[in-house]
């Protein structure tokens, strides 16, 4: 008897799982004017009468189609059907009916497929953080739903310079980062002292849909800008040079009588020049190695002083903030993680910072500060996004699903956290970054309200007693079907 029940239950589970349909949306991201196709796929040997499509588990607004189970709609028609406004992401599901002794018997429901509908693509906003060593360029995309974009960066002649994939900031905004050196932008010797940059983005579907071009941003090549100290001719003459020239002219005209006045007029320029040369030789040099790091990586900051200068201690600061949040080092060297730099400066990644420094020397018992160094740019990237893998997307309440939280860059992970249906208050923690649950466990975890749940994960890294968290993974849907237990009569 027990063996018979086990075999019957196993057969029932196999039949139940076998009859589950699969829904396909192609493409799964589109604008209101674009068309897409929905297909409710059933097993090949099942004779389907008709199919039912619904959105966000709302069965009252079903769309019915006779076999073959195919639906072709525009984004605008889907919005009208579901009664929502774009931009929006919808979970589309389906089931079918078969004829069982003259009765229309419904199949199990499919796991949902996500469909994202965007408004007409708007032009992005380009911003640039400039420094002598690195240009941190951001192409911000005005879209708040889940979608993949590719950004293009252009110069004023329309030529494509670089391409970048979109990321999500902690405020859930899409943007594409570009990190370029000025040499890459001004590589052509014939290039003017300025360049016009702009960007656009492409919705990653087939056929691709491109946004309008952003407004332009002008950057200037500081290496080709003449220095004031070199302007010895024309209107570029500086006041000290002009004063000296007048003094020399007066000396030539009036002869020896004006020698004293000549020397008097010329001496300010000579003194200033001498002082400038001394100041220039005392400038420290700021070194950042490496200049692009993750939050979990270490960066070395060094304030280099002239070899013949006896330094008491060095002072480091960020983004020109020379009066507060200064770090002091007698060795003129700092070793910090990216996370510690973010904590020090009070900003969030991804970000580019201008790090500067100066040092002090002893002049007759007084600590005399040096001139400030030219800034060096440090770019801090967030941790790689978490990636969630599930061994199965459809299980019964007695089956087990294995979930693995990982990342694509072999970033070391200390602890992983799994969430169900976005409930951060009910997270599961795993040091192995793996989670093995039965269908019943998942239903209990989600509060028992739904047979289909959305699971995400993220990981954390401890570095120098600082906890760093990664961006959330893309969601994974797991459908749990409850097996009906029958008691046979003999």
UniProtKB/TrEMBL annotation:
Superkingdom of the source species: Eukaryota
Keywords associated with the record: Signal
UniProt signal peptide: 1-17
Identification of the protein by name: Ig-like domain-containing protein
Species in which this protein is naturally found: Triplophysa rosa
């Amino acid at each position: 008897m027990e063996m018979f029940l086990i075999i019957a239950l196993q057969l029932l589970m196999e039949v139940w799982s076998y009859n589950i349909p699969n829904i396909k949306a192609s493409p799964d991201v589109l604008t209101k004017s674009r068309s897409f196709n929905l297909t409710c796929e059933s097993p090949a040997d099942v004779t389907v009468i008709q199919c039912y499509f619904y959105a966000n588990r709302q069965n009252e607004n079903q769309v019915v189609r006779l076999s073959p189970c195919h639906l072709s709609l525009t984004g605008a028609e889907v919005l009208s059907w579901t009664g929502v406004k774009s931009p929006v992401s919808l979970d589309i599901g389906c089931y079918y009916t078969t004829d069982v002794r003259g009765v229309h018997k419904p199949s199990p429901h499919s796991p949902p497929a996500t469909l994202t509908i965007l408004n007409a693509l708007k032009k992005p906003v380009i911003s640039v953080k400039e420094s002598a060593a690195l240009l941190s360029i951001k192409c911000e995309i005005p879209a708040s739903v889940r979608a993949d974009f590719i950004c293009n960066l252009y110069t004023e002649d329309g030529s494509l310079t670089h391409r970048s994939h979109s990321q999500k900031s902690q405020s859930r905004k899409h943007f594409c980062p570009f990190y370029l050196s000025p040499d890459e932008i001004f590589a052509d010797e014939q290039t003017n002292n300025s360049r016009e940059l702009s960007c656009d983005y492409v919705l990653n579907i087939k056929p691709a849909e491109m946004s309008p071009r952003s407004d332009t941003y002008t950057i200037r090549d500081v290496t080709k800008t003449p220095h004031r100290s070199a302007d010895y001719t024309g209107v570029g003459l500086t006041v000290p040079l002009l004063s000296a020239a007048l003094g020399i002219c007066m000396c030539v005209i009036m002869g020896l009588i004006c020698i004293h006045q000549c020397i008097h007029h010329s001496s300010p320029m000579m003194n200033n020049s001498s002082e400038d040369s001394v100041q220039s030789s005392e400038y420290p040099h700021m070194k950042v190695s490496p200049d692009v790091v993750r939050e979990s990586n270490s960066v070395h900051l060094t304030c280099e002083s002239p070899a013949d200068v006896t330094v008491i201690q060095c002072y480091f600061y960020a983004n020109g903030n020379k009066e507060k949040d200064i770090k002091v080092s007698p060795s003129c060297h700092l070793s910090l993680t990216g996370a510690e730099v973010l904590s020090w400066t009070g900003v969030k990644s991804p970000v580019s910072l201008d790090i500067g420094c100066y040092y002090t020397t002893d002049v007759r018992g007084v600590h005399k500060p040096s001139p400030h160094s030219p800034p060096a740019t440090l770019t801090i990237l967030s941790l790689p996004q978490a990636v969630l893998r599930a061994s199965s997307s459809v299980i019964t309440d007695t089956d087990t699903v294995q979930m693995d939280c990982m990342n694509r860059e072999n970033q070391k992970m200390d602890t992983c956290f799994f969430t169900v249906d976005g409930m951060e208050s009910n997270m599961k923690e795993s040091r192995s970054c793996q989670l093995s649950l039965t269908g019943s466990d998942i239903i209990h975890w989600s509060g028992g309200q739904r047979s289909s749940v959305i699971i995400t994960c993220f990981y954390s890294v401890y570095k120098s007693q600082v906890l760093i968290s990664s961006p959330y993974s893309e969601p994974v849907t797991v459908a749990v079907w409850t097996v009906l237990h029958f008691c046979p009569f003999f």
